[in-house]
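User: Fold this; tokens only.

Assistant: Input:
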Amino acid sequence: METEKIIKELVYKAVRSSGAGGQNVNKVSSKVILSFDLQNSQVLSEEEKELVLTKLSSRLTSENILILNCDEDRSQLKNKAIVTKRFLELLKNALIVPKIRKATKIPKSVIRKRIKDKKNISEVKSNRKKPDLD
């Protein structure tokens, strides 16, 4: 994954943040909204796009645009850094290909042991019965 090239494709937008901050909130646009157009990305290959599309389908808009926002800090620069870091982490996790599970064969010794144990338990239970005196 080429981080620098992906960061160049990101679109940032600064808006006024809600919540605590006093008069600063009313004057400064400190909240940062990051948007990434998955379909028009030049950096990701088609396979990577499909992988991200399936893994992040709940977070994408109908036009396949990923939108993240951050208003944790009162500084626009810090919010931009936080949201960029969050995006890169999200993308890195989405691009991980899960390992294919291989079914393992049960060893013959394990099967033999299980059958032997079943016979032993059966024998113990049959020995609990009252003897036939006829």
